[in-house]
């Protein structure tokens, strides 16, 4: 069970796919929100998903009890709770009463509290993905992390993007439009996050887009949600050449497929960092109130690609980015310059 957040569900996939491939005789069913089922691309044959609408039909306590009661007895021999919140505890308890063995994620709450205490002395916590794996190991499921990409065995289906410029180098079977030939690099930029304290100021992101656009050999894809984010991204698309906003244009699976074709993506500490990690795409990640030491760096990503303000005793002030800034001026983000991010991009493209 892992119901939210989007990035956390994404981080479960390397663990679940690895466990499933190492144990073909075991059937794995992932309980998650309906819209996140599409994220389980190219899943092993023994991985299935089970929807639970925690924002709709299964929102209240009575509806959760009804949902769990409807699950047939002995459908599951083992229940692994990778979320450890009230909702999953309720469901886990009810399934355990039906005979399932229950194993629950240990969240290292004491260590997380120390990390954000403001003491100035911080040490890295275990990666969240290793914590997920440890929970499955305690359940008696033996495996090593073998996952590399959602597309390791089957290339992304790009048919839905035939009207956009593609890299003929990566997809020689496609016939890109005439303008595609001028692009040498394909870069994604995902400037938004669930909390403002995890977002680089938008004027800095726009400056980065302007500098990349001026190179004329770089195609830039922008990622965000519908509504205000979509408006911002479409304004940038209209303002700069070689820029394409994907907001509202494709579903989750299609966006992940697109990200798999990019040379790299610039992302906040957000779901897009984890989507890119699942796609096997390099991420230049920008961090503010949160810190990679909390264990949420994308799967397979490099610390050398992290951009963050060094030497601030107040960082990190939050594990998830929802708490108010201690100083009130978001110095952690103001200290991250466009040049810092651009240098990381250029180093990655050369490497």
Which descriptors would you attach to this protein?
351 residues; alpha/beta; Rossmann fold; 2 domains; six-stranded parallel β-sheet; two-stranded parallel ribbon; 10 strands; 33% helix; globular
Listing every helix as H and every strand as E from the N terminus to the C terminus, the arrangement reads: HEEHEHEHHEHEHEHEHEEHH
Q: Given the structure, what is the number of helices?
A: 11
According to DSSP, the number of beta strands is 10
Label the structural class: alpha/beta
Tell me the domain tally: 2
Helical residues, percent: 25-40%
What does this entry look like structurally?
With 351 residues, the chain is of the alpha/beta class. The protein has 2 domains: 6-138, Rossmann fold, CATH 3.40.50; 173-350, Rossmann fold (3-Layer(aba) Sandwich), CATH 3.40.50.2000. The protein has helices at 6-22, 61-70, 86-97, 109-115, 128-138, 202-213, 228-239, 252-260, 271-279, 331-334, 338-350, and strands at 28-32, 47-51, 78-81, 101-104, 185-190, 218-222, 243-245, 264-268, 282-287, 306-308. Strand 6 (218-222), helix 7 and strand 7 (243-245) form a beta-alpha-beta unit. Helix 2 (61-70) runs parallel beside helix 3 (86-97) and helix 8 (252-260) packs across helix 9. The longest helix has 17 residues, at 6-22. 39% of the residues are buried.
């Amino acid at each position: 069970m892992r119901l939210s957040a989007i990035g956390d569900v994404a981080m479960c996939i390397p663990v679940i796919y690895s466990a499933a491939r190492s144990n073909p005789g075991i059937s794995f069913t992932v309980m998650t929100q309906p819209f996140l089922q599409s994220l389980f691309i190219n899943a092993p044959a023994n991985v299935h998903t089970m929807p639970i609408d925690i924002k709709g039909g299964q929102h209240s306590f009575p509806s959760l009890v009804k949902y769990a009661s409807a699950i047939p007895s002995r459908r599951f021999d083992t229940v692994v709770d990778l979320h450890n919140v009230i909702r999953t505890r309720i469901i886990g308890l009810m399934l355990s009463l039906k005979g399932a063995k229950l194993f629950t994620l240990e969240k290292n709450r004491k260590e997380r509290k120390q990390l954000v205490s403001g003491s100035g002395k911080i040490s890295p916590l275990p990666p969240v993905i290793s914590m997920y794996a440890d929970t499955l190991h305690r359940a008696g499921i033996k495996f090593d992390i073998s996952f590399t990409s959602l597309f390791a065995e089957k290339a992304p289906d790009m048919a839905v993007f035939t009207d956009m410029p593609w890299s003929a180098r990566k997809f020689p079977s496609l016939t890109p439009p005439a303008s595609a030939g001028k692009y040498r690099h394909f870069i994604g930029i995902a400037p938004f996050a669930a909390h403002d304290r995890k977002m680089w100021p938008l004027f800095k992101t726009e400056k980065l887009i302007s500098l990349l656009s001026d190179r004329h050999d770089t195609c830039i894809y922008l990622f965000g949600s519908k509504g205000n984010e979509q408006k911002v991204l479409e304004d940038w698309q209209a303002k700069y050449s070689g820029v394409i906003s994907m907001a509202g244009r494709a579903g989750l699976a299609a966006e992940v497929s697109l990200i798999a074709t990019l040379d790299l993506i610039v992302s906040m500490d957000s779901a897009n960092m984890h989507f890119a990690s699942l796609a096997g795409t390099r991420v230049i990640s920008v961090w503010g109130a949160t810190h990679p030491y909390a264990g949420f760096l994308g799967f397979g990503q490099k610390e050398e690609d992290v951009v963050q303000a060094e030497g601030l005793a107040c960082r990190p002030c939050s594990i998830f980015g929802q708490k108010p800034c201690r100083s009130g001026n978001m110095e952690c983000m103001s200290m991250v310059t466009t040049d810092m991010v651009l240098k990381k991009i250029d180093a990655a493209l050369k490497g």
